[in-house]
Structures are given as structure tokens and as C-alpha cells.
Amino acid sequence: MLRKMIRRDGVAALAALGLLGTAACSDLLDVELPGRVITEQLDDPALATALANGVVITFECAWTQYVAAANAMSD
Question: pTM of the predicted model, to two decimals?
Fold first, then answer.
């Protein structure tokens, strides 16, 4: 009788902890994306470096993926 009571209380406590754990982490992975670049910002000289770095990083990522795919398909 005591074992059943302890087991039932343990299951209830574990379920309560699981619910609290998921409720506490509900916004852990929420990310706000800045969205698209406004057309007027493309003409801003202050953002030229950031835009150029973005182009370079995008090209480097594409090149790396291309090389990896070509390597995987070649002999």
C-alpha cells in the first residue's frame, strides 16, 4: 500500500516538474528576424560595409557547399 502511494506521488511530482519545465522554456527559442532590407537603406553609405560583408559571407557559404557536394559526387 505504501509503495503504491509513493509511486503515485512520484509520478505526479515528475509530471508536475515536466509541465513546469516546458512552461519555463516556452520563449527560449523565439527569435525576432529583422526582415528584409528596405530599399532606401541600400543607398546609405553607412551600411555599405555590412552589405558587402553579407555578400562575401553568402558567396563563401555557397562555395563551401558547392565544393562539398562536388567532392561527395566525385571519385
Answer: 0.46
